[in-house]
Specification:
The complex is a heterodimer of chains A (96) and B (611). With 96 residues, chain A is of the alpha+beta class. Chain A contains 4 helices and 4 strands, in the order βαβαββαα. Chain A has a single domain, classed as Glutaredoxin (3-Layer(aba) Sandwich). In chain B, helix 8 packs parallel to helix 9 and helix 14 runs parallel beside helix 16. Chain B contains 18 helices and 26 strands. Classes of the chains: A alpha+beta (96), B alpha/beta (611). The interface between A and B is large, with 53 and 42 residues. Strand 4 of chain A pairs parallel with strand 7 of chain B, so a sheet runs across the interface.
Chain lengths: 96, 611
């Protein structure tokens, strides 16, 4: 973990399903815009690591699991609305 | 900036249409699959729910999907769980339960109530997946079930699962933003199930009545899509809970289309089947079993037939229970397991009361041969009572069953169903070869001899014994008559049923001047006859003595006459001799005279003497 990383995310995707690809792109864009240099994203493909999906209780894809600073509400979908995501992460101030 | 993307993720598998649609899974069970990837329809996966397997001719379509529709508390989850337990424990088909509603922990705890030991099967043969959507899940944009299906695909492969249940799929579908998306996911799921070759159950909620799932478009869509659909209903009729199950469709198989009542009982799920379609030939027994009353056996030509249904009707207090108790005791004495259901009073009370007429049941209860079931506490519809009776009888492996009184069934709720319940009861006892004795209460007001009218049991029972009172000369006495007894010669006589501390016996009744005599009158008649008989006996003796005396007199007279006769005879012979010697003397005298008168006569003398 690099210095300055405050936000850690785990994003579950299903292979290269369109909505999964969108989610990866959307999350990347959001983090670059609002959380520059303080984030880390792990992308897990359920097709390759189904056991992890089971143990994490992930049954819909794509799904975002915010891990740090605090595990918070899961977000399911293509993560297309940045304001919604930030609100869910408790980052309304950043969005403003 | 740091994005740790797992390498190769985006480059490969571009041909995947749906997540989890992997060919490799099919290959792991090559000989279990058909060419086209599905099983022949005739192959069925038993659910272990006896009645249901009979309705559908073997269970759910193997390798296909079944939709289970029902309102809240209608037993969907239980049905589905039972299906998996059957596969895991009995049929060597491991299963996965995807729980969208309840947690696995709670499901396992609930199942323990029914005596299913799920932890024993977990996790190798039965695997629970907790998939409850978290309540604070944030939705942002499109998503699908691909991830879940992929994960499940791996689990299926790992444990070789053949069965899968998606419980309350509607919870997940509700998260989807629009009907099109819902439909898409349902289709994805269905296709996935087919591709995996899994025998699947999907349960969905439907509010209230079947078919009223208007706003739940995916459900109606699913009904068309799946190969089998089953509707569970839980309603209340006249204040009595009533559960029904109906097979809506079953592609490629015939099935019973009628609603079948079912019960969620102590052992889980039990479906009552209206008519056993398979059993055609019952093995009919020639064996007779004792009714417990010797003279009644004689009246019936040897007793009840084994496997027969016997109905004992009568007004309150006509000793119906006693008669059925006698039957139970006789059965236990033969060493046959017996179940005695008493709806009127407590089992212990019945035992005590019967002991007063020398029907001792305690020892058999202690031995475990006899099971007294205080059914007063049983509640529910006639249907559920029947199921409970059947379950207990089966558990007890009872060969003889007594239900006292069966008329209770008619009172429990719906009259419509009560009529068929009696039929089913008798059907069941015949199929199981159980000898069934039912008592039925008649209302005094109703008049007599319409034995359990609403149950209509009297027409289908094999033997019908009627008990009634005869009030006469300030007394009430019990009379017993056999109204019918199929296939047995039976007496047409009314007998008096006598209960005493020596036991139960039957006595002939007297008819005098067209009147039937029972009780004291019978006794009086009997003793009068005894007296008359005694008198006649004495008179006969007297007569005999008189005759003896007369005979003796005559004998004496005969003797004296004989003696007289002898004397006369002696006298007669004496007379003859005297006259002969007199004659001789005379001739001798004449010859002497001739001698003396020599030469007087020229001719010899004798010629001249003969005259």
């Amino acid at each position: 973990m690099k210095r300055g990383v405050r936000f850690k995310f785990r994003l579950y995707v299903a292979g290269n399903a369109p909505n999964s690809l969108q989610a990866v792109a959307n999350l990347g864009a959001l983090c670059r815009t609002h959380l520059p240099d303080q984030f880390e994203i792990e992308v897990v493909d359920v097709l390759r690591e189904p056991k992890r999906a089971l143990s994490d209780g992930v049954f819909m894809t794509p799904m975002l699991l915010p891990l740090e600073p605090l595990p918070s509400r899961r977000i399911v979908g293509t993560l297309s609305r940045a304001d919604q995501i930030l609100m869910a992460l408790g980052l309304e101030a950043v969005a403003a | 900036m740091d994005i740790n993307v797992i390498p190769d993720l985006l480059g490969k598998k571009s041909a995947l249409k749906y997540a989890g649609n992997c060919g490799s899974k099919a290959d792991s069970f090559p000989n279990m699959r058909h060419k086209n990837g599905s099983f022949p329809v005739s192959s069925k996966a038993p659910t272990g729910i006896q009645g249901f397997d009979q309705i559908t001719g073997g269970g759910l379509p193997r390798g296909r999907t079944t939709l289970l529709i029902g309102g809240p508390g209608s037993g969907k989850t239980l049905f589905a769980l039972r299906f998996l337990v059957q596969g895991a424990a009995e049929d060597g088909e491991p299963g996965i339960f995807v729980a969208f509603e309840e947690t696995a922990q709670r499901l396992v705890a609930n199942a323990a109530v029914f005596g299913w030991n799920l932890p024993r099967l977990q996790p190798r043969r039965l695997f629970f997946v907790d998939a409850q959507p978290s309540p604070d899940l944030v939705q942002s944009g499109e998503f699908d079930l691909g991830g879940m299906l992929a994960a499940l695909g791996a689990q299926i492969k790992a444990m070789g699962a053949r069965r899968i249940v998606f419980d309350a799929i509607d919870l997940v579908l509700d998260l989807l933003p629009d009907p099109a998306a819902r439909r898409r996911e349902v289709y994805r799921l269905h296709q996935w199930l087919l591709d995996e070759g899994m025998t699947g159950i999907i349960t969905v909620k439907a509010d209230g009545h079947e078919g009223r799932s208007g706003h739940q478009a995916p459900i109606s869509f699913m009904q068309f899509m799946v190969d089998c659909a089953v509707i569970l209903n839980h309603g209340v009729t006249l204040g009595v809970s009533q559960r029904n199950l109906r097979v809506l469709k079953y592609r490629g198989s015939d099935f019973n289309e009628n609603e079948a009542p079912f019960v969620i009982g102590q052992r889980g799920f039990d479906v009552a089947i209206a008519r056993a379609q398979v059993e055609t030939d019952l093995s009919v027994s020639q064996e007779r079993v004792s009714s417990g009353v010797k003279r009644l056996d004689t009246m019936l030509g040897g007793g009840y037939y084994r496997g027969a249904s016997v109905l004992i009707t009568g007004f309150p207090g006509t000793a119906k229970t006693t008669l059925s108790g006698a039957f139970a005791e006789a059965a236990c004495r033969r060493g046959e397991r017996t179940a005695f259901f008493t709806f009127d009073s407590d089992g212990a009370e019945v035992t005590r009361n019967l002991a007063s007429v020398s029907i001792r049941l305690e020892r058999y209860v202690k031995k475990g041969l006899l099971r007294m079931v205080s059914a007063r506490t049983m509640t529910g519809s006639a249907e559920s009572l029947l199921v409970q009776i059947k379950t207990i009888a089966r558990e007890h492996r009872a060969r003889c069953v007594v239900i006292d009184p069966v008329s209770t069934l008619a009172k429990a709720g719906n009259e419509l169903t009560a009529a068929s319940v009696a039929e089913r009861l008798i059907d069941w006892s015949k199929t199981a070869g159980t000898t069934l004795v039912c008592t039925s209460l008649l209302d005094e007001i109703d008049g007599h001899a319409n034995g359990g009218a609403s149950l209509q049991i009297s027409t289908i029972a094999d033997t019908w014994i009627h008990l009634n009172y005869l009030v006469q000369a300030g007394e009430r006495n019990r009379g017993l008559s056999i109204i019918k007894s199929r296939g047995t010669a039976h007496s047409n006589q009314v007998r008096e049923l006598i209960l005493s501390d020596a036991g139960v016996t039957l006595a002939d009744i007297y008819t005098s001047g067209g009147e039937v005599l029972m009780g004291t009158l019978r006794w009086e008649k009997e003793s009068a006859e005894r007296l008359a008989h005694e008198g006649a006996r004495v008179a006969a003796r007297l007569k005999r003595i008189n005759l003896d005396a007369e005979e003796a007199v005559l004998r004496v007279r005969a003797k004296s006459l004989q003696t007289e006769l002898l004397a006369k005879q002696v006298e007669k012979s004496l007379l003859a001799r005297t006259s002969r010697s007199l004659k001789g003397e005379l001739s001798r005298g004449r010859s002497r005279i001739q001698e003396l008168r020599e030469g007087d006569f020229g001719q010899p003398g004798p010629k001249g003497i003969r005259r």
